[in-house]
Amino acid sequence: MNAGDLMKLLPYSEEGVPLLDFALIGSFFFRDGHTVERRKLLLACLERYVELCGDQLRHYAVKIGDGRTKWKAYRPDAVSVISRKFLKDEGSTGYFRLTGGEELEIATPYFCHAIVAPESGEVFSPSTGTC
Questions:
Q1: What phi and psi values does residue 31 have, to the nearest 5 degrees?
Q2: Distance, CA of 87 to CA of 126 (rounded, Å)
Q3: Residues 131, 52: contact at Cβ < 8 Å?
Q4: Residue whose C-alpha is closest to residue 85's, from 103, 65, 100
Q5: SS (HEC) of the chain
Q6: Cα-flanking dihedrals φ and ψ of residue 89, to 5°?
Q7: Residue pLDDT tens, the chain, 131 long
Q8: What is the C-alpha separation between 46 and 11, in angstroms, rounded?
Q9: All residues at 6 or more sequence positions from 16 whose CB lies less than 8 Å from its CB, including other chains
Q10: What is the pTM for the complete model shown?
């Protein structure tokens, strides 16, 4: 069975829009993820993800420590904004998220997030559709 055959098995709305989609999801765990050295490895993964899928991304958010966060329109300098915040405050808890949905409420196969916490290491989890 190929991807085209699988697509035929998905449920569709009355308008012919698929209600489900396939995505490739990977999670990477970094021991001592709260350290600057490990955060640099995480950010290298982020940069590669953006190389592959950046044209599909539409929104991003980043939070370090107890700071506030809000979704912003994705732009090419988002990676440098995330990098600057992640490397500034070693040992803090933080996260970033990037998504490809035109609206935040709309599901998309282009989603990437990372969570860092001194007590639990670091998780980088990209989800990609066709990039």
A1: -65, 140
A2: 20
A3: yes
A4: 65
A5: CCHHHHHHHCCECCCCCECCCCCEECCEEECCCCCHHHHHHHHHHHHHHHHHHHHHCCEEEEEECCCCCCCEECCCCHHHHHHHHHHHCCCCCEEEEEECCCCCCCCCCCEEEEEEECCCEEEEEEEECCC
A6: -120, 75
A7: 665 676 677 788 888 877 776 666 677 777 777 778 888 888 888 898 888 888 889 999 888 877 778 889 999 899 898 888 888 776 677 788 888 888 877 767 788 888 777 665 556 666 655 44
A8: 32
A9: none
A10: 0.70
Calculate the alpha carbon distances from 11 to 6, 31, 72, 100, 110 in Å. Answer: 11, 40, 32, 22, 20
Rounded Cα–Cα distance for residues 3 and 19 (Å)? 16
Nearest Cα neighbor of 45 from 105, 116, 93 is 116
Give the residue from 5, 7, 88 showing the smallest Cα distance to 40: 88
